[in-house]
Amino acid sequence: MGKKYIISKERQEGIEQKLYNFYDKEKKIKSLKHKIEYIKKQIQQIQSEKMDYVGYKSPSWDEKVQTSSSNTSYAETELIRIEERKEKRINTLKDHIEEIEDIILNIEMDNSILEYNIVYLEEDIKKLLKMLYKDKRTETSIGRELNLDQSVINKRKSNILGIIANWEDLGVRK
């Protein structure tokens, strides 16, 4: 493998999450898009409930029981409050959709760097990555299969994660 790379535990965990995302990309993105569709349906439902108020007519002056200093009845004030709450809920849901779309974009960007560079790795390194992050196997079970000690697998994994961190730092394969 050549040069040894050392990275912080936090950085290592972040890169490992990107590798899990890389190998689960399609499933994860499909799940996030499904969540977006669900939220859009919630927004439509709230908007259709809002439509139920369209056509609501304020009672005439002689029908009003209570008024406020703004000359609106309690019922009108309550409808306005409900409408504002629904509008706030819609905006919160739209913000949530944007957050999910950002997550999808980040997964795709992270994957583009990984996808480009993983192609250039040696086959034994690619195999180790797949076993660890696609198959989600433990270092011990991989070591048994490859007739290597778990500590050797751990050192190889740490070095590979360092190489990947270097790709991210430089934005290219080195």
Separation of the first and last Cα atoms:
12 Å
| Extended strand count | 0
- What count of helical segments does DSSP give? 6
Task: Give the amount of beta strand, in percent.
Answer: under 5%
Category from helices, strands and their pairing: mainly alpha
- What spatial form do the alpha-carbon principal axes imply? elongated
Report the radius of gyration as a whole number of Å. 27 Å
Percent helix: over 70%
Task: Give the low-confidence spans.
Answer: none
The major β-sheet equals: none
Element order, helices and strands?
HHHHHH
* Overall domain count: 2
The whole-number mean of residue pLDDT values reads 85
List keywords for this structure.
elongated; 6 helices; 2 domains; 174 residues; 74% helix
